[in-house]
Specification:
By secondary structure, this protein is α+β, with helices and mostly antiparallel strands. The chain contains 4 helices and 5 strands; from the N terminus they run βββαααββα. The chain starts with 6 loop residues before the first strand and ends with a helix.
Length: 129
């Protein structure tokens, strides 16, 4: 691929919502999907101190397990259960579907990039870290 080839991609920010009733959240991950290259991946970072400040009773290991599940869905491996066996576009659809759990996807956004993997790292740094 040449350096000037721009690829369309979509992404969702994964939010940890310690207490749904308070509608507060902390961004903990980003999922990037690029149809043209069959790229689907997640990058995440859990700031345990920050999340504990929102809710000291939050099970942070459970948050990390939920993010590992998303990793499995994206990678198409056993960590993602049955969802990981679907075609890549359906796996992204699964990941971006709204849920009322502690880990929730935000709205879908899009853009163009020459390198989806590098874009994922950029988004993680910009939106999560």
């Amino acid at each position: 691929m040449t350096g000037s080839s721009r690829l369309a991609y979509q992404y969702v920010v994964l939010r940890c919502v310690p207490r749904v009733d308070r509608e507060e959240f902390v961004n903990v991950g980003v999922v990037v999907y690029c149809h043209a290259t069959d790229f689907l991946d997640v990058a995440w970072h859990v700031d345990r101190d920050r999340l504990a400040a929102f809710d000291p009773t939050l099970d942070l290991d459970q948050v990390c397990e939920a993010l590992a599940f998303v990793e499995g869905v994206c990678a198409g491996d056993e960590r993602g259960g049955a969802a990981a066996t679907a075609p890549i576009s359906q796996r992204f659809g699964f990941v971006k579907a709204p849920r009322s759990t502690v880990l929730q996807p935000g709205p879908v956004h899009g853009g163009t990039t020459t390198d989806p993997a590098r874009q994922l790292e950029h988004l993680l740094e910009k939106l999560v870290s």
